[in-house]
């Protein structure tokens, strides 16, 4: 089967993962995921695999195959896996779980290679563009930087005591990090390189973005430059687009009927995909703020989405 150049996938509380034709809105493949709900989806940089983070395992599916079976299962977490992502060459995967740990998995060998203890249910993990630091946020309000070279925690922050950090995002050039919490607040820091390799956080802005929870925050990708945006998806049914230059509100995306759980930018930042409890995912134009396409097919809340519409990284 010819591989679509745009990989778009969603997962729902209906225990399915669906692949969509982005332009037509047609669902062309459904994978049953009976064992648990799926909390997070991520596509490998080479577009070959889709990682589904469930409870308590992570499963890897072959995007180019029609097999309903995962090609690999990663099994050492003991609770919901809330975060999953890949190193830029796809050599290893990272994950964060409500079991309080952040783990690193070498995709070429079974089992978990490293484990870091956060002492709080981990909601979100992002990889710094330098590929040597992971930043995690947990239910107790802690943000921690894990230095993969030194194999230790190099930095701890608590932006708001006892307020869960729901989502973290780092600017593609490593210049900013944003943390979104359960009070609808985004904390923004400049990331400064210290004397050693350690990253220092310099407070830049506090943004009261929503009255409800922020379930996902996301900074725009490199090819969106010179425009820099922050998207915030909320329990108030809206997604807001903020201009990072001054953190002024650019647009509010209105159309979902329930909580908006996840969002992802297209590679050039021209479009945004969102996933909502109203069972749908939507495609939005960033220029007009209008809804272009609705992806309908799930029977319950659609809680995560993944998109890869860029070129595969060329082999070194």
From TrEMBL:
Spans of repeat WD: 1-30, 74-108, 115-156, 207-252, 253-294
Alphabetical UniProt keywords: Endosome, Repeat, WD repeat
Entry-linked SMART domains: WD40
Cell compartments where the protein resides: Endosome
Main subcellular location: other
Highest taxon listed in the record's lineage: Eukaryota
Any matching Pfam family: WD40
Protein function: Component of TORC1 complex, which is an essential cell growth regulator that controls plant development. Acts by activating transcription, protein synthesis and ribosome biogenesis, and inhibiting mRNA degradation and autophagy.
Subunit field text: The target of rapamycin complex 1 (TORC1) is composed of at least RAPTOR, LST8 and TOR.
Family to which the UniProt record says this protein belongs: Belongs to the WD repeat LST8 family.
Cited PANTHER family: G BETA-LIKE PROTEIN GBL, TARGET OF RAPAMYCIN COMPLEX SUBUNIT LST8
Entry protein name: Target of rapamycin complex subunit LST8
Organism of this sequence: Hibiscus sabdariffa (roselle)
